[in-house]
Amino acid sequence: MLSGHCDLDENNCLLDFSSTFETIFNRSSKPQIRGGFSIDNMALLTIYHALDPILRKKAKPVKNIDGELADLTQDMIETMYDAPGVGLAANQIGLPASFFVIDLGIEKEKRDPRVIINPTMVLSGEMEDGEEGCLSIPDVFAHVKRYSLVELKGYDLNQNEIRIEADGFLSRAIQHEMEHLNGSLFWDNLGVAKRDILKRKFKKKLRDK
Ligand code: NI
After folding, report:
1. Is residue 2 assigned to a domain?
2. Is 131 a catalytic residue?
3. How far away, in angstroms, is 143 Cα from ligand 1 center?
4. How far apart are CA 114 and CA 152, in angstroms?
5. pLDDT tens column, 120-135
6. Which among 16, 58, 94, 151 is placed 20 to 30 Å from 7, CA to CA?
């Protein structure tokens, strides 16, 4: 479990992921607890917004799947549901590493949170239009064309290979999270004019906060 404040003693800091992720992160890109814990004592993490450079970093492969990662991803799942959202990629909480959490139960309205590590995907089917939002761009929604089918491969926290085939909204959600790991955002799929309108709207919202 992530806990406490880490400003005083960096060496003993539970939020220091340098052991897990080696040298790819610096101090400015660590997960930050945004104050308070949820009822079941899991930490809610800061979600970085779309204009933060961390969202533009390509994720690097995770080298060690360990207890630290298990704790962190539990907090990510908690943060995702609290937002509320259906997926959250590591760079959205400040770590440009190749993993995300997603609720595979989104279409059945039954929670089925999963951790997908070092994922790859193969896309197929038709292009489908659908509305999307993003926890890093709150209150901004747009229609995006995505492939209807996706085959996702990766690893779980037990280092077992996993393979997920999805269509519909889940396929869309997986492609959205994979895009995050590539340093892209859903509005990058839109035309320049449309994207600029959404960006202006979002910047105004940040200013007005
Ligand atoms: Ni997103």
Report:
1. no
2. no
3. 14
4. 12
5. 999 999 999 999 999 9
6. 58
Here the tokens at position 117 are 């590590």
Residue 57 lies in a domain: yes
Task: Choose, from 126, 128, 165, 177, the residue flagged as catalytic.
Answer: 177
Kindly give the distance from the C-alpha atom of residue 118 to the centroid of ligand 1, in angstroms, as a whole number: 17
Would you say residue 6 lies in a domain?
Answer: no
In a domain, 126, yes or no: yes
Q: In the predicted model, what is the mean pLDDT of residues 180-207?
A: 95
User: Using 50, 70 and 90 to split pLDDT, how confident is the model at 3?
Assistant: very low
pLDDT tens-place string over residues 73-82: 999 999 999 9
What's the number of domains the chain is made of? 1
The whole-model pTM stands at: 0.83
What stretches of the chain adopt beta strand conformation (E)? 33-37, 43-45, 87-89, 99-103, 113-134, 137-155, 161-166
Ligand 1 mean position, distance from CA 91 (Å): 10
